[in-house]
Amino acid sequence: GDSVTQMEGPVTLSEEAFLTINCTYTATGYPSLFWYVQYPGEGLQLLLKATKADDKGSNKGFEATYRKETTSFHLEKGSVQVSDSAVYFCALSDGANSKLTFGKGITLSVRP
Amino acid sequence: NAGVMQNPRHLVRRRGQEARLRCSPMKGHSHVYWYRQLPEEGLKFMVYLQKENIIDESGMPKERFSAEFPKEGPSILRIQQVVRGDSAAYFCASSPLLAGNTGELFFGEGSRLTVL
């Protein structure tokens, strides 16, 4: 079945540091890929998405590129802020019924 | 426009009791999804419902768990005879139509169930 693997966390960075969060996936078809973010005390929010190979999703300074050859969708940001502290989930959808398969999530803490 | 509303936010039950979790989707949304997040785990799909219909319940445990989304009122996730292993955060999400490959689900803040 479909699966999503995220790097182990948590991750702690200083403000303005470069961020990479790794995500790889296994899927039988051609899934769409997503990053969701969960701020403390809130529900998950869609951060960005990519629906086909080589697409780049971007939002709020975050980017991720759909790499079919490496089955990856790594999340990057050039300069993190304290307000980026949250839990980040990588996910895929096989398109059928919008059922999302999530990774375990990774907690990012950004120090001032 | 109110978001997805879940209640209660926190629920404590003793083993053997019943837990009922409610979810009101965003206005205009007719598709509801329930996910469970166990400690140190990602979100796991449980069930997908449209009004009065269960579309996909492949992630629901075979016993004790049920879900409904009536014509009027919120969606309900019901857990009978709870056990300690049911302790988790239960998230509801909604979408306006079949979201297909957009995958854009709108999540509630979750209901945290603790079984003593």
Characterization of this structure:
The complex is a heterodimer of chains A (112) and B (116). Chain A is mainly β. Chain A has strands at 3-6, 11-14, 19-21, 23-26, 32-38, 44-50, 56-59, 62-65, 75-77, 86-93, 100-102, 106-111. Chain A has no helices and twelve strands. In chain A, strand 10 and strand 11 (100-102) form a beta hairpin. The radius of gyration of chain A is 13 Å and the shape is globular. With 116 residues, chain B is mainly beta. Chain B is 0% helix and 48% strand. Chain B has strands at 5-7, 10-13, 19-24, 31-37, 43-50, 53-56, 65-68, 75-79, 88-95, 106-107, 111-115. In chain B, strands 2, 4, 5, 6, 9, 10 and 11 form a seven-stranded mixed sheet that branches. A four-stranded antiparallel sheet of chain B has the order 1-3-8-7, with no helix packed on it. In chain B, a hairpin with a 6-residue loop joins strand 7 (65-68) and strand 8. The termini of chain B are far apart. The relative contact order of chain B is 0.33. The model of chain B has no long low-confidence stretch (mean pLDDT 90).
Comma- or semicolon-separated keywords:
heterodimer, A: 112 residues, mainly beta, six-stranded mixed beta sheet, 0% helix, B: 116 residues, seven-stranded mixed beta sheet, 48% strand
